[in-house]
User: What shape does this take?
Amino acid sequence: MNEETFEIIDGGLLTTVQDTGRYGYQKFGVPNSGGMDLQALKSANILLNNPIDSACLEITIIGPKIKFLKKTFISITGANISPKLNNKDIPMWQSIKISEGDVLEFKELIDGVRGYIGFMGGINVEKVMGSRSTYIPGNIGGFEGRKLQAGDILKSFCNNHINDMHLRKYKPLLYGHQHEIRIILGPQNDYFSAESISTLLNSEYKISLESDRMGYRLDGPVIKHIHTADIISDGSPNGSIQIPGDGIPIILLSDRGTTGGYTKIATVISTDLSKLGQALPGDIIKFKVITFEEADKLTISEREVLKSYEEFANKDEDKIFNIMIDGELIESNYTSEKIYSTKEKLPSPIISNSINLKTKIPKSGHEFDFKLEYSRKKLIDENKLN
Amino acid sequence: MNTELKFLSAGNQSLVTELGNTINNEINQNIRALTYSIEKNNIDGVIELIPSYRSIMINFDPLKLCILDLKKTISELYLNLKSIDLPEPKTIEIPTLYGGKQGPDLEFVAKNSKLTVEEVISIHSNNIYPIFMIGFTPGFPYLKGLDQRLSTPRLKTPRISIPEGSVGIAENQTGIYPIKSPGGWQIIGRTPIKLFSPNKLNPFIFNIGDNLKFTILSNEKEFYEIEEKINLSKENSI
Assistant: This one.
């Protein structure tokens, strides 16, 4: 299904379609793009049981005004820009039922920079080079390669379980105006003296007005090079802190050029890129060097948080059903993509097999025919029997 | 004997491997070979590679791949570089209409080089240019091999908009603008070939290590004929 879902009445400051980014084309000079705060974007999708990399709207500081053309569910995460549905306040970080004709708009910015609006099924625009993300300087992806404006009509992938959706809530995140940003030194930290590195680590930097999806220029003490700011052009990592000849740091972000000819003193770790996505011009940044081991721990705990959201989202009574195999009761969850069992017990003495089954979801009464394929390791005892 | 491999830290999801610190053919050949070898090995957790003049940036998923294991794998592949079966680079023809309104700076380049316009065209279209890097904008090739006689400084004031396909010279480099963009290169001609077609099956017509050969179009009619043919075709070159 592929129906017109919403119309833009007012585009706001900068509203674009973004997913988790475009990968595999940087070697041809195409930036990753994608949401600047991927934690919030992924959360918006989890709230709707969407595939985690589905396309959302990224809204910036001044939100859009949107009219819905059909019933659906949405979720709003990330920056708090005072969302209102039909002039009434609505909560963020949960799924919200939408009726045809509803109007969503945003008022004053309370916290953060970028909000994400998830749509059930995800926004349906043509994929360009494997992604739905908008890259405005290259005029590719998203909706006609540009920011949204009044009159644009967008579609979303529909989902048949519209009446089965339950409202789900998370604890909202708060971003604030002081950010500790963790970094790993390199790739070109050897172009700087110990004194310059100490300046970077012990100073406060203010995000300047010259900040966008390509990168943030920082105001603060200048970082001096030992000899030169110029290198033979090489790849620009996401979150790398570039120090050009004038010594003013620039953090390179989602829409950054793929390569560059200036030194990069350090690189922001993956988990703190989302924090930067919510940092406003005027906010204060302090850098802190961490080790690879610490970065790994943070990456794992970030994944655990998203996983716990997913588990929470899946706690939907209508989606739990029981199946019996050889008298063994197995509680199972149904999601749009897969059926999986929460128990791993399988009947003995079968080692691998498949069975055709029928099951019924208790509340909604939906019936399913499905094939269960299962297998397990052979036990030593069974080898003897053979 | 290969030069020594050097790893540079680049955060927890990128690793830079440097094969030297100069721009030359040998290093760039090794970059191409190592890039090919890493891609061919389909290392689980490697997301994408960004090869440049003398280094490769490897972006990876830190949840799937430990950086120490990645370094070890790359070092092993580098040691075995000579034994890989590397495909021959392609040579791609770039039919170009030199001068006129498509190449407004051709006469300045000739004057600056103390050559005639015909000599500039002949010298520029005679060389074969290897692609050492792609970057800056989608599909922008960094070419090696401009004849030193054609070296010309950039425009004092960059143009606000240069049409896609424009062929330019800046100092000792020559290149092609894949998309309409601002720029300060001396524009000597334009090709109807599309270097970047985001919606076609193959958005790009070349890879790092391939060669470009400029050929001469004699008039606007030929230019528009090729342009029309490309617009109608599923492919983006002739």
Summary: The first strand of chain B starts at residue 6 and ends at 9. Chain B has a mean pLDDT of 93. Chain B touches chain A through 47 residues (CB under 8 Å).
